[in-house]
Structures are given as C-alpha cells and as structure tokens.
Design goal:
2 domains, mainly alpha, globular
C-alpha cells in the first residue's frame, strides 16, 4: 500500500526529515532521564526487559507508563488500569486537534502516523514550529517523532537493564524530570507565541480548575477536565477575536 508520504521532491523530503531530527535533539536528554526512570520502575514492578521495551514502544507515554506500573504493582484490576491509562492519554486528542490546523495539506495516513507518535514534548516543539512557519511538513514531523520514539524505547530498555544496580531513592527522584521538562517546553512555546494573552488566560483557567477539583476528583479526571475547559475557552475566545477582526 502506498502511503503517499511526501508529494514534494525527494530532496525536499529528506531535508525536512533531517530538520525534524535536529529539532528533536534538545529534548533527547529529557527522554533519557524519564525513560531511564520508567524502565527502572518497570523492572521493580516485576516486568522483564523485553516486556518493558514492548510497553515503551506500544504505549509510548511517560505519564501513562508510570501510572501503569504503579497500578500494576498495587494489584489494581485490569479494567481500572486500562481506563486510567485511557483517561490520562485522552489529552493527546486535544493536542492532535490543535496541530491539525498545520496539516491541512497532508493525507489521512500522514495525519494518523503523526498523531500516533505524538508526545507532550514533540507537541511543544511542533506547535512552536507551526506557529512560526504556518504549516508542518509530514517529513519534518516524522523526523521529530521517530527520533523521540527510538530514544524513548532505548532509554527504557537501558533503565530496565540497570535498575538492580541503582538505589530505589534515586530511581524515584528521576520521575520529577517529566514535570520539569514539560514546564520548560510550555514556557518555550509561550515565549514564541504571538497570542501570549490568550495562552496566559488558558493556562490560568487550567490551573484554577485543577485547584478547585483536585480534592474532589481522581487525578486523571482533573487533568481531562482542566484541559477540556481551558481548550474550549481558548477556542471560543479565538473565534470571537477572529470575528471581531473580520468586521
């Protein structure tokens, strides 16, 4: 089956792919620190190196993997594990919808591949690129995603393999790098944005919703609710602003 990945000349596709690879390089150390911790925790939870590698490649999300290992180690029912992972990963629907504006010239298969390999980090890098250039070539996104995916799997495998040689306190401390790297990407995207007021309002709404609901709902539901309300408000505000500018 032909995927029709790139209709432009091969040189252009190769150049865009290399550019995507280079764009991913600053995030690679973050993938290694988080992936190493995820792989190590997977080993401590009773999974083999092969099982950890398969989970890293197929599930491919740091927060969901940490959640999966924690629930599994606690003896949670499989249905609870699946639903919890599903709720945590639902944020990628919002991220993919946001990036879709810059993939209007891409085929359905190209959009599917780009969405399946999307992470919090590649979303931040891609959103900054799309805001600056007005579109995202599929070859560029593929280079960005493939490097991130391969480094994540390799980091998880190395972490799983070396887990028994590290103290548990060090392994637990590495998990905070997931939060710190995402905050850094969020700030990088905000500084590059042309709509800082709108994005600041969106962040503020998400924070307020989180603070109000965190004591009453499960953490996964809080994430979904805060992201949904903030994104909805931002979309309505953006449409209202666009209509006002068109008059």
């Amino acid at each position: 089956m032909s995927l029709n990945i790139e209709e432009a000349p091969a040189e252009h596709g190769a150049s865009a792919f290399r550019s995507g690879v280079i764009a991913c390089l600053p995030t690679v150390p973050g993938y290694w620190s988080i992936g190493f911790a995820a792989g190590a925790i997977g080993t401590l939870a009773g999974f083999s190196v092969l099982e950890t590698a398969l989970l890293a490649g197929l599930l491919y999300t740091g927060s969901a993997q940490f959640l999966f290992y924690s629930l599994w180690a606690a003896g949670a029912e499989m249905l609870s594990v699946v639903l919890s992972v599903l709720l945590v990963n639902m944020r990628y629907l919002l991220m993919s919808s946001s990036l879709s504006l810059w993939f209007r010239d891409s085929t359905t298969m190209q959009k599917l591949i780009s969405g399946l390999l999307l992470t919090d980090e590649t979303f931040g890098v891609a959103a900054q690129y799309g805001s600056r250039n007005g579109s995202i070539p599929f070859a560029w996104m593929l280079g960005l995603n493939v490097v991130a995916w391969l480094n994540w799997i390799l980091a998880c495998v190395v972490g799983a393999w070396l887990a028994t040689a590290l103290p548990a306190s060090l392994i637990d401390g590495l998990s905070f790098s997931l939060v710190s790297m995402f905050i850094g990407l969020l700030l990088m995207t905000w500084f590059a944005s042309r709509r800082k007021t709108l994005e600041s309002l969106t962040i503020a709404v998400a924070v307020v919703v989180t603070l109000v609901t965190v004591e009453h709902l499960e953490a996964s539901l809080v994430v979904i609710l805060a992201a949904t309300l903030a994104a909805t408000l931002a979309t309505l505000a953006l449409r209202f602003t666009a209509k006002g500018e068109s008059k």
